[in-house]
Write a structure and sequence with these properties.
Blueprint: E1 4-7, H1 13-24, E2 28-33, H2 37-49, E3 54-58, H3 64-78, E4 83-86, H4 102-127, E5 136-143, H5 145-148, H6 155-174, E6 180-187, H7 194-197, H8 203-208, H9 219-230, E7 241-244
Parallel strand pairs: 1-2, 1-4, 2-3, 4-5, 5-6, 6-7
Helix pairs in contact: 1-2, 1-9, 3-4, 4-6
The structure holds NADP nicotinamide-adenine-dinucleotide phosphate.
The site of NADP nicotinamide-adenine-dinucleotide phosphate has 32 residues, from helix 1, strand 2, helix 4, strand 5 and helix 7.
Length: 248
Amino acid sequence: MSKHVLITGASRGIGAATARLAALRGYAVAVNYVANDAAAKGVVDWITAQGARALAVRGDMSSEADVERVFGEAEAAFGPLSALVNNAGVPGKIGRVENLDLGVLKRTFEVNVYAAFLCARAFARRASVKRGGAGGAIVNVSSMASKTGSPNELVHYAAAKAALETFNYGFAAEVATEGIRVNAVSCGLIETDIHAEAGDASRLARYATRMPMARAGKPEEVANAILWLLSEEASYVTGATLPVAGGR
Ligand code: NAP
């Protein structure tokens, strides 16, 4: 079966690094994003310049209709998907729960949790060997916040990632005999735009020295772990959450 991966939120950060590495490892890559056309085009141009195949597919992965369209566009371009990376995520705004806006709470769960469910459902409907598919692998991108709870900052986000990890574990068992492996990476502090989006770009430098390795991680370091979990080298690994967090 040819290698074809859909990576959600692949225009920037961890998703973009994963898209580049997947292309170097022989995958055709569907580069999903929600708004930043130029960034997605940059990732696709980089991949095609390496002689590999990539397609930018815009869509809000918390929307059922967009998920179906994005899967359809990816398959029309490169054939059946063999892998899915549920990477798209939003942090919401930094703040205490007593000040939390319901809209922010809903959006945080929509993108970090609902999108992963919808994409995993779409993938399983196509790839499950019980449905005539060829199997495959999924990686969910989670956060160490699920363990720390991120008090005074991002409790809503931490709770969403905890839900994602429980989904990871339960869904992995559900499809374990259907040729689909499901794993997660739990990221520590990674150098991306997400901290500025949460409302505090200085957060990265402030927390970096508190990590056991005394530095933030690079998106490429997460991409390495994701590509391993997708690979045959991880053939007996499912339902796992692998910390990629510099010792946390
Ligand atoms: P990022 O640099 O802010 O990039 C976010 C990506 O998600 C962008 O490609 C964005 O597309 C896309 N996106 C946002 N909402 C979407 C939606 N509804 N549908 C499809 N795509 C959507 O983020 P990152 O830091 O790389 O984070 C990637 C994942 O790692 C997230 O799940 C995040 O929670 C997790 N994580 C990150 C860290 C960290 O320290 N960076 C730590 C723990 C976990 P546009 O470019 O079009 O906006």
